[in-house]
Fold EngB-type G domain-containing protein.
Amino acid sequence: MVLLHLPKLPSSILTPLSSSPTFIRTHFLNPNPIKTPRSLLLFSTLTLPASEPTPIHPHTPEPTPDIQQLPLNKLFVPPETPVPLDTHTLTARVLKGSNILLSNYATDSQVAQAEFIKSSVRTEDCPSDGLPEFALVGRSNVGKSSLLNSLVRRKKLALTSKKPGKTQCINHFRINDSWYLVDLPGYGYASAPQELRMDWENFTKDYFLNRSTLVSVFLLIDASIPAKKIDLEYASWLGQNQIPMTIIFTKCDKRKKKKNGGKRPEENVNDFQELIRGFFETVPPWIMTSSVTNQGRDEILLHMAQLRNYWLKH
C-alpha cells in the first residue's frame, strides 16, 4: 500500500450510483487545512514482474526537464489507478509536461469528428442528450479558441480573435458524437460593458453549479506571464464550490527575456502552483500546452478520455 496525501473522496466517487451521473471530484479547496485535516486515501499498488513491464500508452513521451520529476504527493492519481513502486515505471506513466498519472481508463482519446452544435446563454438551454462534457474557461485572450482548434485539429472550428471578449455564450462542440467540448466566455475583460460582464459571470457560474453532465472544468492560465490575481481567485472559487478542475497552462512556447525580468513558462507554472498550494489539500491536475507547437494536445485528450470513461462507468 502507498499513502498519498489526497483529500477524502465523497461516497459518490467510491460507490457507483444508480440514478443521475456524478462529478469526478478528486480535489477540493480547504480554507483551513491546518484546523480541518482530511483523511489520507489509500491506493493499492500493482507491481508487475520484470518480464511483464507496465504497459505504457504510445502517446506517453519522455519526461520534460524541470517539471516532470515530481514527488508522489504532487501527482494527480485518478481513481482506481494503481501506483507503481518502481520510480522509472512511475515516471514513464506520467503524461509529459504534467503531473497526471495515466490510468487504464485512457482509451478512445483521439478526435475523429467535431462539429458546432449550439450557443446558449442559459444552462437550461444547453444540449439535453446527457453526453459528458468538458468546459474550457480562462481570462480573456488566454487562448481558449486556439486550444480548442488544436485539440480537434481544425483551424476554424472555434473562431479566434485578437480582440478579447469575443466568446459571449456557452458554445457546445460535439466530439465523435459521444461527448462535448464547451467554450465559455472569458473573464477579466475590462473593456466589456459592466452589465455584459455580469451576465457572463452569472450564467457561467450557474452552468458550473448546475450542469449535471459536466465532467471537469479546464481552467486556462497564461504561462508566459506571472500569475494574475483574477486567475487565483477563479481557481479558488472553483475549489470552494467543489467543481472538478484541471489547470491548463497555455503559451508555454513563449520565452521572456531574463534581462527584462521575464521568467520561463516552467518557472511561472511552478510559481502558480506554489500560490494555490496553501488553499488546496492536494495539487489539482495540470498540463503545459502550446497551440503553436501543439504541445500538450495529446496529453489533454488522454486526460479527458480517462476522466470521461470513469464518469461513464460510474
